[in-house]
Amino acid sequence: MDNIEAGIMRVHREAAGVLAVEVVRYSDIPPLLFAAAGGDASAERTIGILGGFLDGVGRARRGNSILCATCRHALKRSKFACVIVRPFRDDRSEGLCLGVCARCVPHGSVADIEAKGLAFLKRVWPESRILDPGQIHVDRGHA
Ligand SMILES: [Zn+2]
Fold this sequence. Notes:
The protein is of the alpha+beta class and 143 residues long. The chain has helices spanning 3-15, 29-37, 41-59, 110-124; strands spanning 19-24, 80-87, 96-101. The chain has one domain (3-128). Strands 1-2-3 form a three-stranded antiparallel sheet, sandwiched between helices. Helix 2 packs across helix 3. Residues 68, 70-71, 73, 101, 103-104 line the site of zinc ion.
């Protein structure tokens, strides 16, 4: 099991099977940075996860590259989009980031990128599927 698969299994355990998936393309980064700078905690958490992943892609040396989740092309050598997978819980500061290269999603639509990320997750966790957040009722309870 590689690090990505180990990360997925950890996220899966913590999520008890319910995951939140977020697609981040290059064009999404400036608005996220502005939102984070403006105090948006959700954007700040996304930037935190994304920053660690992009740093890893940038630092990767030949032979130890971070690969596309779909085709195993080295991300450092192409444009790519990110799929952030987090346990669906109150604390979403930790998550897993996957990269999907531009060769695998030539049109770069969010739906295509999400589908590629989901296909990768299904290899590790066959029951994976994306839920619309509106389908999930979170009852915080009252004492
Ligand atoms: Zn690819």
